From TrEMBL:
Residues 52-229 form the Cthe-2314-like HEPN domain. The lineage of its organism: Bacteria, Bacillati, Bacillota, Bacilli, Bacillales. This is Cthe_2314 family HEPN domain-containing protein. It comes from the Bacteria. Pfam families: HEPN_Cthe2314.
Length: 239
């Protein structure tokens, strides 16, 4: 959708994004088959279908936000706030909007994945923590000592992307609970320069963190759904 608004060609999924989308499509196919066979009297399969479709939509929105942030970043050439033209200021504002939208969505999407895994595997994580996060669900896998293969892979991804995720989390928390992240950057630069010009934050470094966050999300989704698909397929064939 955003690509069309920006005059770009439609996205062609590839890499980790394609793997994540395909794994969820496979899940939806399996759920549809189960609903046709059983009639789904408890609506459990329908609920799982809705959660999966919602996750797929959220991933699409996250990727679009990251793409749009990078698109508008390319239009910002100045290194200092005072040197930006009026047009650059507008493009910078658009970059900030989509960048913030992106890093907030990274953690919202992970929490949706955690909620889905909690439902899929009857983990009752809410008994441990009423308002739990994706990372609480990961710890619950270890506490319950279930599905070690899946848990090991998800922990491996969490640890492998620890640094960019920590930076994104810090900026998310600042944005949500404290102040606008771009204003925090201005304050930090002002403190360094005192009465000098305010240098822009490292836009490319921030975008790289966002891209890595997107990559981590894609790989985690693919790992979770590929494992779940295998479990369901084995169960349906009695293996």
């Amino acid at each position: 959708m955003l690509r069309e608004l920006l005059g770009e060609q439609p996205r062609q999924d590839s890499g980790a994004l394609l793997q994540a989308m395909n794994s969820m499509k496979r899940t939806l196919s399996l759920l549809q088959r189960q609903m046709e066979q059983s009639g789904d009297p408890t609506f459990d399969f329908r609920k799982a279908e809705i959660l999966t479709r919602g996750l797929s939509t959220s991933l699409d929105e996250l990727e679009q936000s990251a793409y749009a942030a990078a698109f508008f970043r390319k239009k910002v050439c100045a290194n200092f706030s005072e040197e930006m033209t009026a047009e650059e200021q507008e493009d910078y504002a658009r970059y900030v909007y989509f960048y913030k939208n992106g890093f907030i969505r990274v953690f919202a999407l992970l929490d949706k994945l955690g909620n889905l895994l909690n439902d899929f595997y009857d983990m009752n994580t809410s008994k441990v923590k009423a308002h739990y996060s994706y990372f609480t669900v990961l710890r619950q896998f270890r506490y319950l000592k279930i599905h070690d293969k899946l848990a090991d892979r998800l922990f491996e991804l969490k640890d492998g992307f620890r640094d960019p995720l920590n930076r994104l989390r810090k900026r998310r928390n600042t944005e949500v609970h404290y102040m606008n992240v771009e204003m925090q950057d201005d304050l930090w630069q002002k403190q360094r320069a005192l009465y000098g010009k305010i240098k822009l934050e490292d836009l490319d470094e921030h975008l790289d963190d966002l891209q890595q966050g997107l990559d981590m999300v894609c790989r985690s989704i693919a790992a979770a759904f590929d494992y779940t698909n295998q479990q369901w397929e084995r169960r349906s064939t009695g293996q």
